[in-house]
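new request in #modeling-help
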Amino acid sequence: MARIRFQSVTKRYANGATAVAGLDLDIADQEFLVLLGPSGCGKSTTLNMIAGLEEISEGALLFDDRTMNNVPAHRRDVAMVFQSYALYPHKSVFENIAFGLRMRRVPEPELRRRVMDAAAKLEIAHLLERRPSQLSGGQRQRVALGRAMVREPSVFLMDEPLSNLDASLRISMRAQIRHLHAQMHSTFVYVTHDQAEALTLADRIVVMRDGTIQQIGSPDDIYERPANLFVASFLGSPAINLLEGALETIGGTLCFRRGALTVPLPACFRGDAREVVLGLRPEDVGPATSEAAQIHGVVDTAMPAGSDQFLGVAVEGAMLFLRVPKDVRVREGEPIGFGLTESRLHLFDRTTGRSLRRAA
Ligand SMILES: Nc1ncnc2c1ncn2[C@@H]1O[C@H](COP(=O)(O)OP(=O)(O)O)[C@@H](O)[C@H]1O
Ligand SMILES: [Mg+2]
């Protein structure tokens, strides 16, 4: 059992680089928390401070009510899985998984029970006699997970554990990691730069940039109510469309204006006339007849994508990238109209990048 708290934690490396600045974060016992952000934003540094692999320059790290700053890694009841699985090549799968338990002199029957249990959960029980060289990448990563699981740690840390796997395997491993979390009674902290992985796995996501937290929330919070332009752009594939324009009140309704385009905004947004950015996710439009359409444009490109098609649509000097059902008939160079779902629009201050959504 462990609740993990960062209180104003800063990490400066010896070369003077500030990797994490003033981090405040409260991770609940047995939560699945994902640290998400681009390369270099401080995710691994944050994880390594929890593990005790990096010292904390300022602030406090607590497990439950105990300050951990000076507690060495091996006294933290933490297990960690990295991107590179680093298995012992000359040991069997069984001995690789058992290694940490042997070091701790766990009695043989208990050791066997734990290894067999982990292997069953990871569906690698039939591979226990093999050497790592006789395994696929996905199987090796499951052995690495098993090696951490058998420790039955209070805190389970994972740093981009699926990055070396191919796309389809990553998706099935995500499901397996969710199951692991449900079966173990550990707090999970998981680092990734892959927004889809974060959205699938997390109870809560922490979006980081340049060593600071941009937003903390459930996957729905982060995707549907991004706090700023950075978060809005980082989540979603293809990325959200961002249209620059101005705010204007027309007949008592706040509207987004860009050239001939006027989009009435729902009451959840506030703001007086100023430069703004309208955010529109590719999937949040529907084809509409030209009378009903709220956005008019010209089809620039149409790209089939299996069940859907992606359209590049020129609107008021900008190019929107939109997803529509495959059966919508479009021709490049022809006009097209779309309807919008007001509740799915996003609006940001162009200067600060902050969302103009009212606090809920
Ligand atoms: N050992 C180190 N010495 C100096 N700077 C480091 C060290 N490790 C990481 N950094 C720097 O700290 C920042 C955050 O790095 P890191 O936590 O590894 O980011 P992420 O895991 O999000 O890619 C980066 O600017 C990186 O260059
Ligand atoms: Mg990293």
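bot summary: The mean pLDDT is 94.
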